[in-house]
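Morning. Coffee machine broken again, so started the prediction first thing and wrote up yesterday's gels while waiting. Chain of 373 residues, entered below exactly as on the submission form.
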Amino acid sequence: MSHKVMHICLSRGWGGLEMYPSRIIPELKRQGWEPHGLALADSRVAASLEEAGVSPLVVSTPSRALLAVARILAYLKSHDIRVLHCHKSGDLRLGALLATLRPGLRLFYTDHMGVTRPKKDPYHRWAYGRVTRLFAISDATRQRNLAAFPLPAARIRRLYLGIDPAAYAPRLSREACEALRRELGTPEGAVAIGLPGRFTPGKGQAVWIEALSRLAESRPDLCWHGVLIGGLTAGEGSNEAYVAALRERVAALGLESRLTFTGFRRDLPRLFEALDVVCVPSRNEAFGLTVIEAMAAGKAVVGADSGAIPELIDAGTGRLAAPEAPAAWAEAMAELIVDADLRRRLGESARRRIRRDFTLAAHVTALTEEYGG
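Came back before lunch.
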């Protein structure tokens, strides 16, 4: 068969869903597939595809994509593309229409978000009826998918996301790492505790800040510094009003000298080198890509005991805390702050787990086996 696939992502946002196509493109190419893309003109998705070496077909809006269906079909035919992969539920309208007009197209959909409401009305029965395979990115999301989508269980497959562990291997010299820690505002001898992620209420930054306040009050003997990593503007995918509220709360709690907002960073693997503990307090994570990235970097991780995160972390690789319980987060962080040997053991076990279960190569191998039927 033709080893070609078009990834469709008609979004102007910028999060894990939008990053996914460009993230897997190098591995798709390495495994002998020719990737193509369909994106919105002047979007971050389109730019990321270009950076990955793919010149995407572009449309101005999702509705314009439906009007451009003849042009898209002609593109698929001229490039002999027989596999489509959608990443937003709204894009399935286009994917299903293309599969209807060109029988023989194989249509795949990844539910990156974790559906929360039933989709079994006539429209969704038609659209999902054209899907060859739906990928759930965790057991937690697969259970939701089974309840929500008009598909038999055999057509819904759990396929964990993966990363390239080599990208998270230590590279910085001691001097460079110390310089980066200073840049992040971490005092000498302090334990650096980081929280990477988009600034939205569901990511749990507010609970984490309350936990740091409790930690400061209950254990004034501990030396630590908090690092919030993520874009601070709407253009970077964050909720600006939420960012402002967080800054106000930090000031009210007197934590300004103990907490750094880094802004958007492209060097997350290197930032992990400068951190000692990574926290992911997301309330209902569909997977937890940040969790496995931190684990690959050999860091002790505290994750929320909700959503898919408990599938990634156990007592041998990290700690879990209730997502709405600042006291539990303060306790988990205190345990790791005082015990450097525990942090090291958890980090080493976490790194081994990633190499065993969550590599990008294994993810793409499973994906292309499905593409090929």
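Residues 4-162+359-372 form a domain with the Rossmann fold fold (CATH 3.40.50.2000). Going to sketch it on the whiteboard this afternoon.
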